[in-house]
Task: inverse folding
């Protein structure tokens, strides 16, 4: 049976999430916490998230949640240890419709064939696959091509950032919905750093790399160059600048990057530099109206 997550479920939910972590074939988008205390703050204390567990014989054997995302909601899970999960996914879709979300997204690991088959059975369509790569502490420095410069951008000008973000990659849209204040707040503090490439003669921004820092890991969330400046090594120089900044922190042990399935050149570059693929996540979408 489906039940809203309650404090009494948190210990078993933590155990279910640890079970999911054991193999890629079980993984989907899920809460980050793995303790009852952490899950209380992440799942129960949040105002936006709506979460449910699937109970069999009084034990938590499944989990799913709805989180606002883009123009709709993202689906955490479905994580299923007992049964095929159809009843839980049907429940989540019904709740998403009741909330008025136009689109429901899901993000299972590519090798999670059980979840992918279930999503497709319920009408979800695969949009694209995102590949994640990681490398340990490595010198990735690369010379900036003649006629350009790469600098750490501080503070972030929302208008300049939004314009460049929209030009470097047709598929990017998440940041375009943010207000100026939301963009400024995103870049305040030490958790996010922005590097931008400029043309020397005009000062026009032509590329960016957005670096996110989290304890012992750093991730390049976005990297791109405008079409007219590609093929000169600017993307490689932006990667090198972001990596140098990340590894200047002695606590950072690993740098993660990502590339969509159509970004063949980026995938080849990361492999050539020694990055190892750590994950592949398929984006699914279901139009609810």
Result:
């Amino acid at each position: 049976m489906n039940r809203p997550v309650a404090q009494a479920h948190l210990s078993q939910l933590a155990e279910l999430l640890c079970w999911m972590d054991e193999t890629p074939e079980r993984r989907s988008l899920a809460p980050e916490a793995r303790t009852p205390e952490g899950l209380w703050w992440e799942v129960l204390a949040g105002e936006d998230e709506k979460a449910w567990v699937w109970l069999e014989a009084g034990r938590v054997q499944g989990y799913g949640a709805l989180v606002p995302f883009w123009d709709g909601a993202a689906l955490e899970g479905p994580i299923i240890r007992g049964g095929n999960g159809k009843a839980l996914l049907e429940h989540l879709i019904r709740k998403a419709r009741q909330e008025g979300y136009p689109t429901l997204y899901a993000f299972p690991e590519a090798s999670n064939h059980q979840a992918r088959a279930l999503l497709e059975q319920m009408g979800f369509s695969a949009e694209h696959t995102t590949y994640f790569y990681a490398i340990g502490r490595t010198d990735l420095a690369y010379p900036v091509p003649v006629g350009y410069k790469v600098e750490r951008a501080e503070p972030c000008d929302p208008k300049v950032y939004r314009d460049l973000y929209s030009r470097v990659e047709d598929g990017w849209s998440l940041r375009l919905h943010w207000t100026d204040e939301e963009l400024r707040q995103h870049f305040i503090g030490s958790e996010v750093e922005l590097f931008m490439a400029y043309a020397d003669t005009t000062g026009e921004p032509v590329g960016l790399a957005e670096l996110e820092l989290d304890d012992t890991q750093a991730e390049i969330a976005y990297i791109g160059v405008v079409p007219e400046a590609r093929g000169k090594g600017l993307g490689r120089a932006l990667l090198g600048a972001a990596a140098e900044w990340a590894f200047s922190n002695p606590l950072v042990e690993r740098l993660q990057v990502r590339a969509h399935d159509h970004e063949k050149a980026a995938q080849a570059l990361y492999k050539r530099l020694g990055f190892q693929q750590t994950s592949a996540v398929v984006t699914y979408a279901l139009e609810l109206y």
The first strand starts at residue 2 and ends at 4. The CA atoms of residues 110 and 196 lie 32 Å apart. DSSP finds eight helices and twelve strands in the chain. Helices lie at 10-21, 36-44, 86-99, 113-121, 158-168, 180-186, 234-247, 264-273.
